[in-house]
Amino acid sequence: MSATLLEINGLRKAYPGVVANDDVSFSVGESEVHALLGENGAGKSTLVKMVYGLVRPDEGQMSFAGRTYAPGSPHEARRTGIAMVFQHFSLFEALDVAENVALGMETPPPMHELANNIREVSETYGLPLDPGRLVGELSAGERQRVEIIRCLLQDPKLLIMDEPTSVLTPQEVDILFETLRKLQTEGTSILYISHKLEEIRALCDGATILRLGKVTGTCDPREKSARELAELMVGTELATPAVRDHELGDVALALNKLSVASTNPFGTTLKDLSLEVRKGEVLGIGGVAGNGQDELLVALSGEVLSDPGAVRMHGEAIGGFGPNQRRAMGLLAAPEERLGHAAAPDMSLVENAALSGWVRLGIVNRGFIDWGKARGYAEAVIKEFDVRTPGSGNAARSLSGGNLQKFVIGREIMQKPEVLVVNQPTWGVDASAAASIRQALLDLAAEGAAVVVISQDLDELMEISTRFAALNEGRLSEPRDAAGLTIDEIGLMLGGAHGMEVAHV
Amino acid sequence: MDFGSINPVLLIASLMVASTPILLAAMGELMVEKSGVLNLGVEGMMIVGAISGFIVAVETGSPALGFVAAAAGATVMALLFAVLTQVFLSNQVATGLGLTLFGLGVSSLMGQGYVGIRPPASPRMEFFGLSDLPVVGPIVFNQHPMVYVSLALVAGVWWYFRSTRSGLILRAVGESHEAAHALGYSVLGTRFAAIAFGGACAGLGGAFLSLVIVPQWTEGMTAGRGWIALAIVVFASWRAWRVLLGAYLFGGVTVLQLNLQAAGIAIPVELLSMSPYLITILVLVIISSDKRRAAASAPASLGRPFHASS
Fold it and tell me: Which residues of chain A make contact with B34, given a CB cutoff of 8 A?
């Protein structure tokens, strides 16, 4: 390739207590697709926020197209020719597509003209989009198209993409890659952030690997194996969870035509879900975000009630039972949102442990809490699941996302459930901790519990599932044996490409 | 029902007057809530506006200067709220309630020497004989200037949200402050401006009460109108034209029930007095009864504190 477009030299950014980036240097060439690779918390997001002008570096310089570049705000970055697709979408649900696009542009044309531009560009790149629709009604994949089109309309020289594929089906990923390659041939450079190694090997020309805020290597990802990249990224060898052989037992949990309306105005309604989970089985439920995962979890945990017969445990109709009754019977759940759903943010770990464990563990005696028992239980979870915290009296909010995740999952597993339902059990958890959570789920199944794992991480589901089913727009596919399923088949189960097409030009 | 002595033309003309304070305050609060801030201090800002305007109008003899001072006085109150909630991140509900209590207290202190005085009269508009037309004359062409200002404000706010970039940014900030921040828009700046605008509107509403409707200064004279304005914004699903509808409905029923009382109709006075509150809330509740839609039209960041993490 050719001249350098973006050059980063010795960037450093420290927050109280953490150095997010330390002496980071790398460069992106013109029409290069450059990967920024690293674990959660390696400092990738902080780094691109500095490039996009959202965060000011403490030290170091950047240059863009040969000139010194020190953006004071995203406006300046956009004027320079840098556009960014955010990991957690920077979209407004109650505004329509055109308004969302206008907000991401420096000098948007009048609305009707913009609507035409959106139609035109979305056709050209095979990302069909109706400018008049509310973003809140769009699927995750469509939302991402909004973000991408917002960037494309500004003819960026550098496009930053922060984990763009985490919410896409495999087919949608292929189409996204086509679009990106097309942009590359048109002369756009792309800074691509991800921790998915195969994607990076397929797409990128160069890679910079970050670990704990520092650059640990630069390489050509096409010449390295995924394993070598992973070791650069994680720094240690990775253990693959081991499946123990065991017999499946009777049906523990059965759904029979479960239909539940969502309580969220932009949520997904569950339609006619039927499935059976047997003792000792791990049922993996895949799906792109926003296809009914949250609704399924709350319907199983008992937060939302349904027809009594629609949910059965050991044959007993429990659809009308609330969470505590279900807990008493041995059905436990760990929702995706850690702060505010799985855990009360401002309460201590002891209190959080007691809140979920009192039903099964006898922590409450005649209406009084046995704090000694509660503390003992919280400390057992902390020890067993290697939760890094100064003590069990700390507030849930003070823990990092990954550590709190270990705590809320561990809290349920250690209550010895007969049926456990988890949603996104390893979201935001580093690779070694994720492996230990998966191992714990497998061990639980081996001891005879039925486990339902709802996740958007297909690799995770393939690793631990006995059978696999997909949620798509509130409907559940027929579960299939996980062994032997290919990524293409899974993609089709997830709803295929959701109407996306390959770029036309 | 016997309307006997009630003249419908005068009823409409006077309901527009009676509704104007609430309409002004509610339009201000609409702007504030659209930006994602819940300011429960409308009542306090209104009454500070009422006394500030009253004092300046009495001292200078100019009602116009009085209105300017009312807007300024209430804006000071609003900025106090803005600094506390946006910079020091105090709780918006508690701060808003405190602002109302503070406003009631400080206004009665300011008004010590002004009880029982009549402010300078502020004339109605005259449109070269148009005002003498039957029916339309009294309703359309013979109102106080602030009535026209309040109606222009409704149209202006509606147009601002619908067609301007700045209105779009304000809605975006109210919808998701994290996303707006990520795109580089100033959440604090937008919210300060909205809160100040809301204060100025509430102040104008208060002054319209003390200078035009009553016209006199009495302690606590806003008598809950600020709270009604708040309720109207919510039940109007944050839409400008529905706020107008709600405010006029409230004013209309207020005037009507006063007329009915005067006509000596055989309904207990207590029932008549509560009727404006009941009917306004009831009608707006029915309009906004579609739960999913109502949840979707509420600014999603309403009342949530924002602190830039970086």
Answer: none
Q: Which residues contact A437 (CB under 8 A, 6 or more apart)?
A: A385, A405, A406, A409, A425, A426, A429
Q: Which two tokens stand for residue B80?
A: 């106090």
Distance CA B108, CA A82 (A): 56
Q: For residue A226, is pLDDT > 90?
A: no
Q: A496, B238, A84, A145: which is closest to A131 by C-alpha?
A: A145
Assign 3-class secondary structure to A217-228.
Answer: EEECHHHCCHHH
Looking at residue A496, its pLDDT comes to: 58
What b/e sequence results for A185-217 when a residue is b if at least 16 CB atoms lie within 10 Å of its CB, and e otherwise? eeebbbbbbbbbbebbbebbbbbbbbbbbebbb
How much is the CA Rg of chain A, to the nearest whole Å? 24
Residue pointed to by tokens 């797409």: A203
Q: Which CATH number fits domain B8-124+134-297: 2.60.40, 1.10.10, 3.40.50, 1.10.3470?
A: 1.10.3470
Q: Among residues A444, A470, A467, A126, which one has the least CA distance to residue A285?
A: A470
CA angle B148, B150, B151 (to 5 degrees): 65
The interface predicted TM-score of the complex, written ipTM, equals: 0.83
Per-residue pLDDT at A164 exceeds 70: yes
pLDDT in tens, A267-291: 788 888 899 999 999 999 988 777 8
Q: Strand pairing partners for A369?
A: A364
| pLDDT digit string, tens, across residues A34-43 | 998 887 667 8
With H, G, I as helix, E, B as strand and everything else as coil, classify residue A283: strand
A23-32, A283-292, A299-308, B108-117, range with the lowest pLDDT: A283-292
Please state, in angstroms and rounded to a whole number, the distance separating the CA atoms of residues A436 and A425: 11
Question: What are the tokens at B263?
Answer: 């006509």
Phi and psi (nearest 5°) for B214?
-75, -40
Contact with chain B for residue A55, Cβ under 8 A: yes
- CA neighbor of B146 nearest in space, from B42, B63, B253, B47: B63
CB contact under 8 A, B165 and A86: no
**Do the chains contact at A92 and B172, CB–CB below 8 Å?**
yes
Q: Would you call B184 and A94 a contact, using CB atoms and an 8 Å cutoff?
A: no
Domain positions in chain B = 8-124+134-297
Q: Which residue, among B183, B238, B310, would best test binding to A if mutated, counting the most A CBs under 10 Å from its CB?
A: B183
Where do the H-state alpha helices sit in B83-144? 92-110, 136-140
Two tokens, residue A150? 């917002």
Average per-residue pLDDT in chain B?
89
Rounded CA separation B120/A358 (Å): 70
Residues of B contacting chain A (CB within 8 angstroms): 165, 168-169, 171-172, 175-176, 178-185, 292-293, 295-297, 299-300, 310
Topology of domain A4-234 in CATH is Rossmann fold (3.40.50)
Is the domain spanning A252-493 CATH 1.10.3720.10? The answer is: no
Length of chain B: 310
- What is the C-alpha separation between A285 and A497, in angstroms, rounded? 18
A95 → closest Cβ in B165, B171, B178: B171
CB A48 within 8 A of CB A84: yes
Ranges for all domains in chain A classified under CATH 3.40.50.300: 4-234, 252-493
Give the C-alpha separation, A42 to A44, whole Å.
6
pLDDT at A419: 94
What is the Cα gyration radius of chain B?
Answer: 20
Contact state of A91 with B169 under an 8 Å Cβ cutoff = no
CA A334, A339, A343, A349 dihedral sign is positive
Nearest CA in chain B to A107: B165
**Chain B residues within 8 A of A110 when measuring between CB atoms:** none
The secondary structure of residue A163, as a DSSP letter, is S
Instruction: Please check whether residue A73 touches B, CB under 8 A.
Output: yes
What φ, ψ does residue A239 adopt, rounded to 5°?
-90, 135
